[in-house]
């Protein structure tokens, strides 16, 4: 019996090093590109008459973005029009969304630009999820700030 135990132990394979991809560490300060994207998204929303536009600096508070851009539309069609305008304006500056969620219903559309996540809500949905309150300690960026320099070519 002890021979079997020795044999099974000797047949064990050595542990393999992990092949899982390493997660990149996020910087302590937001990138200038992220700020440009957030400001461009806010400007596109203003042009489509969105209300309650806020840019929240969540750098160091979350690992998935530097900025959250929150805004409100008046109807499902208005929310969809704002989301389309944001995607179009930011896209023309050279950045593409990696994901757009919620367009069929138009209650809450999320547009993910990697370092910037844009949320376009209808008023009741925005009040229900209260991201403004959830991130009340996040620094706010004035929407009227000019967009610094041109985007990537």
Explain how this protein is built.
Helix content is 35%, strand content 21%. Strand 3 (99-101) and strand 4 (108-112) form a beta hairpin. Mean pLDDT is 83; it is low at 20-26 and 145-149. The protein has helices at 2-10, 32-47, 76-92, 123-129, 131-134, and strands at 51-57, 67-73, 99-101, 108-112, 116-122, 139-141. It has a six-stranded mixed beta sheet with strand order 3-4-5-2-1-6. By secondary structure, the protein is α+β, with helices and mostly antiparallel strands.
Supply the key terms.
6 strands, 5 helices, single chain, alpha+beta
Largest sheet: 6 strands, mixed
SSE pattern, N- to C-terminal: HHEEHEEEHHE
* Rg result: 22 Å
Q: Give the strand content.
A: 15-25%
Amount of helix? 25-40%
| pLDDT < 50 runs, ≥5 residues | 20-26, 145-149
pLDDT averaged over residues: 83
What is the β-strand count? 6
Number of helices: 5
- How far apart are the first and last residues' alpha carbons, in Å? 72 Å
Identify the overall geometry.
globular
Structural class: alpha+beta
Q: What order do the strands of the largest sheet run in, or round the barrel if closed?
A: 3-4-5-2-1-6
Provide a brief overview of the structure.
With 153 residues, the chain is an alpha+beta fold.
């Amino acid at each position: 019996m002890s021979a079997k135990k020795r044999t099974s132990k000797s047949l064990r394979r050595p542990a393999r090093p992990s092949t899982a991809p390493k997660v990149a560490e996020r910087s302590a300060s937001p990138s200038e590109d992220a700020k440009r994207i957030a400001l461009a998204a806010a400007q596109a929303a203003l042009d489509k008459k969105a209300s309650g536009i806020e840019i929240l600096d969540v750098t160091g508070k979350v690992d998935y973005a530097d900025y959250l851009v929150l805004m409100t539309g008046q109807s499902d069609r208005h929310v969809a029009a704002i989301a389309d305008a944001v995607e179009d304006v930011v896209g023309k500056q050279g950045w593409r969304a990696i994901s757009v969620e919620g367009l069929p219903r138009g209650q809450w559309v999320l547009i993910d630009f990697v370092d910037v996540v844009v949320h376009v809500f209808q008023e009741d949905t925005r009040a229900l999820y209260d991201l403004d309150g959830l991130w009340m300690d996040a620094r706010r960026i004035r929407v009227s700030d000019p967009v610094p320099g041109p985007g990537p070519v």
